[in-house]
Amino acid sequence: MVRVPAMRTLENTLRRVGFVYVAGVDEVGRGCLAGPVVAAAVVLHPDKHIPGVCDSKLVPAAERERIFDRILRHAVAWAVAGADPTEIDQINIHQASLRAMQRAVLALAPLPDIVLVDAFRIPDLPMAQRGVVHGDRRCSAIAAASIVAKVTRDVLMTIQDREHPGYGFAAHKGYATAEHRDAIRRLGPCSIHRVSFRLLEG
Length: 202
Description:
- With about 200 residues, the chain is α/β, with parallel strands linked by helices.
- It has a single domain (about 10-185), classed as Ribonuclease H-like superfamily/Ribonuclease H (Nucleotidyltransferase, domain 5, 2-Layer Sandwich), CATH 3.30.420.10.
- Helix content is about 40%, strand content about 15%.
- It has helices spanning about 10-15, 60-75, 85-90, 95-105, 135-140, 140-165, 170, 180-185, and strands at about 20-30, 35-45, 75-85, 115-120, 130.
- A 5-stranded mixed beta sheet has the order 3-2-1-4-5.
- Helix 2 crosses helix 6 (about 140-165).
């Protein structure tokens, strides 16, 4: 997939019509077999361009961490939130993802005037929102949120690798790789596996 920097066109348009704080929100970890789903919300500073911001899946890990640091230094506001495996199993991954995104948005200070979401609509937000199809590739605020969420979750899964040795969480971050499925066959699921998922199919 060709790496194309996300644009600020939509955010700039919204600011011109009166929305001062424009937040982007995205989540990572929906398709994993283990660990939380993590969401981030970011309000970028209109006068502080951060080079390289694009869909987190297109950025190598080392560069992603450098961009993450720049986002945290220069953003007007940022926040992360999550839903753990127990909550995912109780309410399903889609609802857990929406809750994580809602929590991230409501943790921003100041609260945004409008929220740009990658494809979804988040329930029970007290401000305007707009879904943007392929938003993590098209919209810089959403792309920034995808990077913050991805780096945060990767760190959490590296910590879980030390807590639950043998599953390889530091390498695959809980995704359904062949190595991960083999570890589940050998060791059985651990406390951070999503037991409502089909852990050993595929």
